[in-house]
Amino acid sequence: MASQLKVNEIIKQSGSSITIGETGDTVSGPFTSVPAFHATKSSSTNISSGTDTKIDFDTELFDTDSKYDNSTNYRFTPTVAGKYLVYGQVNASNSNGEEYQYGAIILYKNGSELARNAIDPSNNSNAKSNQIIQAISMIVDFNTTDYVEMYVKANVGSGTPSIYGASSASPTYFGAYKLVGV
């Protein structure tokens, strides 16, 4: 039978830290079950120019509660209400070396656009390139049925935009984790 300690306050006797347990002990309770995942693309993929395209993040680096679908929907459905930090990065290039006219990374929540981080190289001569790397992060409120997905949009005059996979020096990735204490 496990013992229970019920107190209203713990005050340190001396020093600057409190030790609970010993090395190797595990902790359970509200701070341990926090849905989190991080996924990447296993390989590069061509996409259509000028279209919001869902990214198929098919390789999980971790998925603490099996809440990320890496096989069909490519979405995170935490099923635990709360505030989450959602983040991602897209690295894309154009097959014929032509400069991008527009590039964006887009978060969708429950099938609708939630946020977009875009670059328009036509308005910034320093941003003209045949490769774009866009990142996004934001805190998102979830209820028990909400889900989030990541999309990309790349406009090119000619050629075929391609999203890099995990082997790139700047890989394409997507992740989220529940914030504790907010």
List strands and helices in order, with pairings.
Layout: E1 36-40, E2 45-46, E3 53-54, E4 59-63, E5 82-94, E6 100-109, E7 112-119, E8 131-142, E9 148-156, E10 161-163, E11 173-178
Antiparallel strand pairs: 1-4, 1-11, 2-10, 3-9, 5-8, 5-10, 5-11, 6-7, 6-9
Defining traits:
182 residues, mainly beta, Jelly Rolls, 7-stranded antiparallel beta sheet, 4-stranded antiparallel beta sheet, 0% helix, 41% strand, elongated
Question: Which range does the strand content fall in?
Answer: 35-45%
Order of helices and strands: EEEEEEEEEEE
Count of domains = 1
Q: What's the Cα radius of gyration?
A: 21 Å
Distance between the termini: 33 Å
How would you state the average pLDDT, rounded?
A: 85
CATH topology group: Jelly Rolls
Q: Tell me, what is the CATH class?
A: Mainly Beta
Strands, count: 11
What count of helical segments does DSSP give? Answer: 0
Uncertain runs: none
Task: Give the overall form.
Answer: elongated
CATH architecture title: Sandwich
Helix content: under 10%
Largest sheet: 7 strands, antiparallel
